[in-house]
Amino acid sequence: MAIWVYEIIVSLFNYVIICGVCTWYFTSTQDSTGEFSLCKGLGWALRYNFGSLAFGSILVSLVWGAKMSFEWVAKKIDEPENPLTRCLESCCRCCLDCFHRFIKFIDENAYIQIALTSDPFCTAAYSAFCLALKNSTTFMITNGIGTMMRFLGRVSICLANTFIGYLIIENVSDLKEDIDNPIVMLSIIFLISFTMSSVFMDVYAIVSLTMLQCLYVDIDICNQNREPDVLNNRYRPAEMQDIVETLSYKEAE
After folding, report:
1. Which residue in 14, 63, 166, 186 is deepest, having the highest Cβ count within 10 Å?
2. Domain ranges, residue 128
3. Are 236 and 28 in contact (CB under 8 A)?
4. Is residue 49 a contact partner of residue 67, using CB atoms and an 8 Å limit?
5. pTM score of the predicted model
């Protein structure tokens, strides 16, 4: 139950950001900037889509429960040194971890489709999966770049803040006299920096994924409406124009 409540809070947080990005994208034009409404996203979540968020959250919490149950069983095994037992244990742990990552990926993409179409969770998850499968190369590259940026962002923020903290401790006379061993303080700075950087980079990841889905939904709408020139849609944010031309050039190749 505690894990489910935690996952609901995380899902609500992500959904509010997703709604803000979607409203910005589809209210922007080539000449004007749309609104980024977080309050509207919170209202939609609590009034219309809270059930879908709770359903997606319980899927993740069930996988978490399965992982914790497996770890408990693994500790109770009588022969942990048996090679076959260790091999099976590693395989099960890997499968559970992959399944957890898959459910998280489906959840994130389903929430974007819920914000775009207000469909129920299962329908939105199916639409998101088909969209990701149809544009698998772009989604794979985007997720790879996003993972690398999250890692580099966390490392750089943590190291920079820890280094600044070290300089402050060494150059402020009062602190230098009161602190005998700076390692403890630097460890606390590092942990706080890691927590804050993780939150910030997770926001970056969900925003980039939402913008990618909005872009492909926009292109599909233009194709369905038989727009004469998909590249020059004046109802698309000007910031996305270069990305559309790059994607179309690669598809033409």
Report:
1. 14
2. 1-134
3. yes
4. no
5. 0.78
